[in-house]
Amino acid sequence: MTIEHVVEAHGVRLRPFRADDAADVVAACADPVSQRFLPNLPTPYTETDARWWIDSGAPAAWTGGGAAYAIADPATDRLLGGVGLSNPVPERGQAEIGYWVRPAARGRGVGASATRVLSEHAFATGTIRLELLTDPENGPSQRVALAAGFRYEGVRRSAGSSRGGGRHDLLAWVRLAGDPPGPTARLLPDLPGGVLTDQVVALRRLAPDDAELMYQLHSRPEVVANQAPPVPPERAAIERRCRLAESGWLTGDIARLLITDLATGEPAGSCGLSYTDVASGEASLGYALLPDWRGRGYATRAVRLLAGWAFGPAGIARLTAGTVPENTASHRVLERVGFHREALQRGRLPGLAGTRLDDLTFALLPADLR
């Protein structure tokens, strides 16, 4: 990549690091979020570390065939963060892009703008493929990738090192020189205003703090009995599910939601939606309620809200829901929303001890929604 001393576009300036950036580098790199998701940073991060980066670390990135820019405010030239290229693979025309932002500058699109600027500059100077790797629990960084035009490509298993030892997965986001400009369209868009409601029930994205509630719900015997296979979940699996809920939306894997009573804010249950066939626009949904909220129409309201969002903002063409044949209460919920019984698939699902379970499938088209 050709070295440019200053590159300015999309509301940010990329320039070399300077000695007077040290205090802002410390503020960024000593921050708990940076320390969590950038495990190679020294801890505690001090002014000595910042001066090493400015005097030696950043210049070494250029010497090694990469890049290390300071992100600055064009109006004041004050440091907002850093963005760079590393791990070049010349024979593939490939490099890895990464960034960090000072806490006071977060939430303003600085990371996305800087990533766009450096990506465009890299492509203009011969790079063909850029990778951006994120921790699966780092939703804001994944949003940066999407806003900068990167597409989710898959999981790099055990590609990341954890602070204090150990390995963890990383998510790979990729942009090619020939990709169209602008943000990447998502399979599962955010809820409008962060919530769906009919003024009685409200749905919002599942969050890490919902783990205990979700464990209590999904380990109930009657809920387990309607799963395939009917095995109670482990607490650690539920905790991880809640921590990864935002990532599931951003990668297009699954939308997990909490069902609450709008008036009191009390949790009533959960529901979710995932694609079964992206090419044909088909997705499947499921739900479960806590005992105190059953028989009050909350499941019907939640499914109706979720279906309306699926056919509207999400652009899904067809919804399905699978149930065990004995779950008549769930059948009534689906039928009240407008689902039609479509097929009994014998032995489709795994049961206990090598047995197989039948799957009664319901389907809903936009015109069916009541």
Labels describing this entry:
single chain, 370 residues, alpha+beta, Aminopeptidase, 2 domains, 8-stranded mixed β-sheet, 29% helix, elongated
In short:
This protein has helices at 22-29, 32-37, 47-63, 110-124, 139-147, 211-218, 221-224, 235-243, 245-251, 298-311, 328-337, and strands spanning 7-9, 12-15, 67-72, 79-89, 94-101, 129-134, 151-161, 167-176, 196-197, 201-205, 255-261, 267-277, 282-289, 318-323, 340-350, 356-364.
Individual helix count:
11
- Please give the CATH class of the largest domain: Alpha Beta
User: Helical content, roughly?
Assistant: 25-40%
What is the CATH fold-level name of the largest domain? Answer: Aminopeptidase
**What overall form do the CA principal axes indicate?**
elongated
The named CATH superfamily of the largest domain: Gcn5-related N-acetyltransferase (GNAT)
Largest sheet: 8 strands, mixed
End-to-end separation: 57 Å
Radius of gyration based on Cα positions: 24 Å
Number of strands: 16
Mean of all residue-level pLDDT scores: 95
Strand fraction: 25-35%
Unreliable segments of 5+ consecutive residues: none
Structure description:
By secondary structure, the chain is of the alpha+beta class. It has 11 helices and 16 strands. The strands form 2 sheets. An 8-stranded mixed beta sheet has the order 1-2-3-4-5-6-8-7, with helices on both faces. The chain has an 8-stranded mixed beta sheet with strand order 9-10-11-12-13-14-16-15, sandwiched between helices. The model has no long low-confidence stretch (mean pLDDT 95).
